[in-house]
From TrEMBL:
<dbReference type="InterPro" id="IPR011650">
    <property type="entry name" value="Peptidase_M20_dimer"/>
</dbReference>
<dbReference type="GO" id="GO:0008233">
    <property type="term" value="F:peptidase activity"/>
</dbReference>
<keyword id="KW-0645">Protease</keyword>
<dbReference type="GO" id="GO:0006508">
    <property type="term" value="P:proteolysis"/>
</dbReference>
<dbReference type="GO" id="GO:0046872">
    <property type="term" value="F:metal ion binding"/>
</dbReference>
<keyword id="KW-0479">Metal-binding</keyword>
<feature type="domain" description="Peptidase M20 dimerisation">
    <location>
        <begin position="199"/>
        <end position="357"/>
    </location>
</feature>
<keyword id="KW-0378">Hydrolase</keyword>
<dbReference type="Pfam" id="PF01546">
    <property type="entry name" value="Peptidase_M20"/>
</dbReference>
<dbReference type="InterPro" id="IPR002933">
    <property type="entry name" value="Peptidase_M20"/>
</dbReference>
<dbReference type="InterPro" id="IPR036264">
    <property type="entry name" value="Bact_exopeptidase_dim_dom"/>
</dbReference>
<protein>
    <submittedName>
        <fullName>Peptidase dimerization domain protein</fullName>
    </submittedName>
</protein>
<dbReference type="InterPro" id="IPR051458">
    <property type="entry name" value="Cyt/Met_Dipeptidase"/>
</dbReference>
<dbReference type="Pfam" id="PF07687">
    <property type="entry name" value="M20_dimer"/>
</dbReference>
Length: 462
């Protein structure tokens, strides 16, 4: 075993203890009540980077939460890997569904994690994952084996749309110059079938409002004779997807990349486990776009989902009322070559078109993001594949993910470099949900794989 890998083995427990300390900080970017914790978390990350051996460590102010920067330049002629991650987390609610406190990390075993998993908000998304990079870097520094230059940007606003980061990278292009961006903020297909993520979907997110009568009405005096905004909104939402699971918005599929049958056959080599999939989420049947497998529906096809719907009386007991307004939040996951601007505009037009004349509708766009694809014959992908194959001792396949990390497309546009999505979570890790956890096996495999990536990538560039 190499000295670096030895160092990792010998310091395993400390790495985990340090991660647990980081997980105790409630760095919830969406809730202003936690702003102190978010700031404290940025300081803690900076301290870890410094202690690991990074230079120029800085907690960079932005309009929002700070971006933590650090670097180690050993030779300007060597390639530079830019590591990106986020130290902010999603709100933990509903709290009553957590088996232990979201910010009180505990180690427990699960059927998929017989070696144990750390349970806490942010354990898999993304503290446990970016921290693997800090520890792998420490191991390379302590054993004098860092083969190239490295820069870190760990941001604090990913879960709320990375608003400050876009401007910040444009203002710091020179400082952030790199050859490749390395990100661990995604998952592998399974511990038995490791994968490198080669695609992320884009996102278009809107809030809609349907207004009927100019005030709430008594449902006995008016019911049955006026448009009820809840009914109208429900009908409109139901109309957005047809019997075949196709989205009905005019022109929605115009720019969708048609993935070739060969490529689809290739991706469907990942052993689909329909029974396990259904069981893991308590369903007895799936649904989706006709003609596509579950794997395809959640990766290479665009989708539309209502994320929340409200209006009228939702308190205790009964209140007989027809509300004046009803609301919903709707997300659309996009694939190449759709853009959030195009899709938001098409949605808005269509939503107005299908609205009955006796109501008013309003569509308000939220943050969005572009899809991202890393070709599976690129040298960036090949270095990651080789690194993970070395750590797992298994063949690693490409895998397109359904989630979104909008900054990857922006990195390519502004900095001109490709992002390698070498994440180590499992889709069952319950990210954004109660009882989020991250497998210790995954945490350590990640730390092992990263130095191999640095080594293989540097070799490729020689
Ligand atoms: N790390 C996730 C994205 C992810 C998870 C991608 C697993 C692939 C596999 C990220 O933190 C996230 O939650 N992204 C949001 C979008 C963002 C704009 C809030 C998402 O995908 O919903
Ligand atoms: Mn994330
Ligand atoms: Mn997330």
């Amino acid at each position: 075993m190499s000295e670096t890998q030895n160092y990792i083995q010998e310091n395993k427990q400390r790495f985990l203890d340090e991660l647990c300390d980081l997980l105790k900080i409630a760095s919830i970017s969406a809730d202003p009540a936690y702003s102190k914790d978010v700031l404290n978390c940025a300081d803690a990350v900076a301290k870890h980077l410094k202690e690991a051996g990074a230079d120029q460590v800085e907690v960079c102010e932005t309009k929002g939460y700070p971006i933590v920067y650090g670097e180690k330049i050993i030779d300007p002629k060597l390639p530079t890997v830019l590591v990106y991650g986020h130290y902010d987390v999603q709100p933990p609610d509903p709290l009553e569904l957590w088996e232990s406190g979201p910010f009180e990390p505990v180690i427990k075993t699960t059927p998929l994690h017989p070696e144990g998993a750390v349970f806490a908000r942010g354990s898999a998304d993304d503290k446990g994952q970016f921290f693997m990079h800090v520890k792998a870097f420490e191991a390379m520094m302590k054993t004098n084996s860092l083969p190239c230059n490295v820069k870190f940007i760990i941001e604090g606003e990913e879960e709320v749309g990375s608003e400050s980061l876009g401007d910040w990278i444009s203002e710091n292009k020179e400082k952030l110059k790199n050859d490749v961006i390395l990100i661990s903020d995604t998952h592998i297909y399974s511990n038995e079938q490791p994968t490198v993520t080669t695609g992320l979907r884009g996102l278009s997110y809107v809030e809609v409002e349907v207004e009927g009568p100019n005030r709430d009405l008594h449902s006995g005096l008016y019911g049955g004779a006026v448009p009820n905004p809840i009914h109208v909104l429900s009908r409109m939402i139901a109309q957005l997807i047809d019997e075949d699971g196709r989205i009905t918005i005019d022109g929605f599929y115009d720019n969708v990349e048609e993935v070739s049958l060969e490529e689809r056959a290739e991706m469907n080599k990942l052993k689909d486990d329909p029974e396990g999939f259904k069981k893991s989420i308590g369903l007895n049947g799936v649904e989706g776009e006709k003609g596509y497998t579950t794997l395809e529906r959640t990766s290479i096809r665009p989708t539309l989902d209502a994320n929340g719907i409200w209006g009228g009386y939702t308190g205790e007991g009964a209140k007989t009322v027809i509300p004046s307004k009803a609301f919903a939040k709707i997300s659309m996951r996009l694939v190449p070559y759709q853009t959030p601007e195009e899709i938001t505009e098409k949605f808005t037009k269509y939503f107005h078109k299908i609205a009955p004349e006796n109501v008013k509708v309003k569509v308000t766009p939220h943050h969005g993001g572009m899809p991202y694809v890393l070709p599976s014959d690129s040298e960036e992908f090949l270095a990651a594949k080789k690194a993970m194959e070395k750590a797992f001792g298994k063949e690693v396949l490409p895998y397109r993910s359904g989630g979104s990390i909008p900054i990857t497309a922006l990195f390519e546009k502004v900095l001109g470099s490709k992002s390698v999505l070498m994440g180590f979570g499992l889709d069952s890790d319950a990210i954004h949900s109660p009882n989020e956890h991250y497998g210790l096996f995954n945490f350590y495999k990640g730390i092992e794989s990263i130095p191999y990536f640095f080594e293989y990538y540097t070799d490729l560039k020689k």
